[in-house]
Protein 1
Amino acid sequence: MRRVLSMSASVVMMGIMMLTGADVQQDQEQIQQIEIVQEAAVEPLVIDAPEGEVIARTHIVHVFTQEDADMIKRVAMAEAGNEGADGLWMVASVIVNRVNDPSSDFPDTVYGVIHQKNAFATVTNGAYDKVTAISDECEEAFARIEAGDICPEIIAFEGTKSNVLDKWFMEAFTYRHHKFYTKK
């Protein structure tokens, strides 16, 4: 039997959920209720499952506090405010990728990542503290992040005229005035 089930979540999660036996109908109803309560980005999994068995797969769905959202937007505006929604989205992606990085290279909170020593020039030089307005493009970029659309693997960036990060990271691509990096 071929089944498709997608699942939404209101917390950060990743994994596979397997429902079996007599509770399948009740569990399916609960999943439908969850989807109604909180829509989120999901990746449906289509599989061949034996009768009476349903498998659902979710991917990471980000839920940020208002404080986290404000910090991410302020860094994005300070670092790439003149690079359009895509530039802002890439900077925000770097922050989220650092928070999600399983190594001990980066803190696991938005605050920790943003305030890590020498992590973002605009935090060090005070430009971050001076951001007072968030553009519509920045709101659009952050909405993509919240929906789970995160530029994969980019973990750092710097201006195109700098080569400081080359010794620690591998250059992935350049977008307007920034070079973006992945881990080596």
Protein 2
Amino acid sequence: MLALKASSNGDVELVKLAREIAMDIQPLEIILKNYSITDQTWSELQRNRHFQQLVASETEAWTAALNTHERVKLKAASMMEEWLPELNGRLHDVTEALAAKIEGAKMLAKIANMGIPDALTGLGGERFVVTINLGPQTAPLEFTKDVTHKVIEHEVTNTVKPHEGN
């Protein structure tokens, strides 16, 4: 009964399970399988008031009007993930038109951030700008710093270079 443990880790697992059920992106059977929930444990969970409250809370948060954009993004991402095997098949289908295959490959490259210049992916030169408006009678103060990234052993570190003239 992993999901019914009273420990804080068990509670975290219950919240995660409740959230996935509330999101309703995957069928319940798949969610329960992913969490290794047996039929007996699921029956017990359905009668558990704490779990019922968690599901109600997660459902309320998920369906809130302020969460609409995030909800649509996650559902679209899930749909895209389900469609990727079909796209893969069509990319390798010799009867598929070359133009359609190229468009599919472009979309995959965009999803994977492949072939995008460093400036667009945030790995190239970047600037950090702070503008302070002191009112309509005074020109705004602007401070600009160039920021570069260095990768050391798979970690991104920021090095701030002073802007010339400041």
